[in-house]
Design brief:
With 75 residues, this protein is α+β, with helices and mostly antiparallel strands. The chain is built from 2 helices and 3 strands, in the order E-H-E-H-E. It has a single domain, classed as Alpha-Beta Plaits, CATH 3.30.70.
């Protein structure tokens, strides 16, 4: 079965003034979609929902650099 995955990678520089705000807002996005994540500085997300991926991408773009990819899981 072939399924789409969306990959968001981002870099939020340490010196960004509101870095904590970014992680709080990220947690809000994840919880709104029923996703639970440990506190982590992981800067890559793999999700099967485009809406979530775009929300994470938009948020990360406001605080640093971000990229959004569409991938196809083959196996």
């Amino acid at each position: 079965m072939v399924s789409k995955l969306f990959i968001v990678d981002y870099d939020i520089p340490i010196e960004v003034k509101n870095r904590r705000t970014f992680y709080r807002r990220l947690r809000i996005i994840l919880e709104a979609h029923g996703l639970i994540a440990d506190k982590s500085t992981q800067s890559v997300w793999f999700v099967d929902n485009r809406e979530i991926a775009e929300a994470i991408y938009a948020l990360a773009s406001r605080y640093g650099s971000a990229h959004l990819y569409e991938a196809v899981k083959l196996m």
